[in-house]
Amino acid sequence: MKKSTIWAIAIVMGLAFLGLLYLQFSYVEEMVKMKKEQFDESVNRSLYQASRNLEMNETLRYLEKDVKATERRAYSQDSVTVDGLDGSIRQSHQFAVAADDGTVYSSFQLKTFEMKPASVPKAMILRKDKNSLSEAAKSMQEIVRNRYVYQKALLDEVVYNILYTASDKPLKERVNFRMLDQDIRAELMNNGVNIPYHFTVSTTDGREVYRCPDYSDEGEKYSYTQLLFRNDPQSKMGVVKIHFPDMSSYIFSSVRFMIPSLVFTLVLLITFIFTIVLIFRQKRYTEIKNDFINNMTHELKTPIASISLAAQMMNDESVPKTEQMTKHLGGVIADESKRLRFLVEKVLQMSMFDKKSVVFKKKSLDLNEMVETIASTFTLRVEHTGGKIYTQIEAVDSGIYVDEVHFQNAITNLMDNAVKYRKPEEPLDIYIRTWNDHDRLLLSIRDTGQGIKKENIKKIFDKFYRVHTGNKHDVKGFGLGLAYVKKVVDLHQGEIKCESEMGKGTKFTISLPIMKENQE
User: What is the C-alpha R_g of the chain?
Assistant: First the structure.
């Protein structure tokens, strides 16, 4: 499958997953917002009703108190008058309400019956019973009407006292905090809010007069306020402030059923991304494998062809078999066989590392001595380019505990790469340095070769990876050298890093733990 096709599928699927996640998060956000608005409305409605209940309770309390007091101050007076001219009798009942100073501010007179016993024959008294009942009904209506006037006068007095007497009291005396707490709890439950809350009562200028016993600051940033006695003068008003420590969990509890959907979608998205990464990695490994096979074929063909040609010449009877010719052909076969064996062993070494079947034979060595030995081995090859190898042996504690063969091969590979990737037709200089840094022993190998591009530095330690050199095929190898070096260094609890600048050269630095006495 082409890389462009894979990218197209990945982009389409990725956009679909992102769109689905966006819709789900938007839906959750809208649900949370709607739940928050409903919660706010319920709390504000509950607080408003609780404040009204508080005012009504205060009014009722003053009504009961003032009505009783007013009734105690009220007095009634009955009067009976007889008219001497016609002998009629008039009976009346009078009510009055007076202030403490004796001023009468409400008074009314109730008229009842007016009779003339002398002018009514006894025989007619029975006939007038019906008329008497009618008069009694009218009289009762008048009593009720006048009673209303009386009660209205009492209410006017109570309202006057509430407006000018109740509001003069401190807020702490006007509010029954226990009853207020019960009202708030009851109203919240009536509006579907049944979670713990904390509240305070304060004056309008911010002076706190009450705080609930279990008060805490948790969730205080999301608080609700309501005025108490809002029809009083502003200085006499109160403010109740309430907040809910568990409000967030209460609101988000309504969208918990969406969490599994979001989790499954995220799992699918992560799985999809992981799958795409694996596909690209597999495609890259396939390309590397193909390059490796092509390169290996090319590398193996050369020694095989040389051995085959030498064997044919030895078997060809037409070619004279002088001692010098036989010795030359034998040397060619030996050299090419050695080269062929080296290439095969390189592949087998990496295969052993992959299978984790390699066994190190560690022993105590001196890094300074190993570096000088390897440097002398490469001296002729470097001087052949017109350059030179410079060594700076600065390490005082140079003891290491490593496998001699593998670690020496690792340093040799770094030196070999420096020679391979030199600038054509230019001298090559190699700088080798050893030094100590705290409890670490460091080795650096710097060359003045071609250098490596920044985008290729992070890939050079990958197996089978080879830096592209354009259309040139003069650099031989399988791309296993640096991968082998990193494996060896890692398995010796060391670290290796690469610094390079294109056109100026490359520097490899190896850091190893210093050998301890009990490691031998």
Answer: 54
- Give the burial string for 171-206 (b: 16+ CB within 10 Å, else e): beebbeeeebbebbbebbeebebeeebbbbbbbeee
**Are the C-beta atoms of residues 401 and 489 closer than 8 Å to each other?**
no
Q: Is 443 left (phi over 0), alpha (psi -120 to 50) or beta?
A: beta
Whose tokens are 């003068």? That residue is 233
Tokens read off for 374 = 């390897």
Distances, alpha carbon 247 to alpha carbons 51, 329, 352, in Å: 22, 92, 61
Q: What is the mean pLDDT of residues 188-200?
A: 89
The residues, any chain, with a CB within 8 Å of residue 385's CB and separated by 6 or more, are: 419, 422, 426, 427, 428
Tokens of 141: 């209506």
Q: Which residues pair with 90 in a beta bridge?
A: 81, 114
Single pTM value for the model = 0.44
pLDDT in tens, 439-487: 889 999 999 988 888 888 887 877 666 665 544 444 445 456 788 788 8
Cβ atoms 93, 112 nearer than 8 A:
yes
Average pLDDT over the chain, rounded to an integer: 77
Q: How far is CA 506 from the centre of its chain?
A: 43
The maximal CA–CA distance of the chain, rounded, in angstroms, is 189
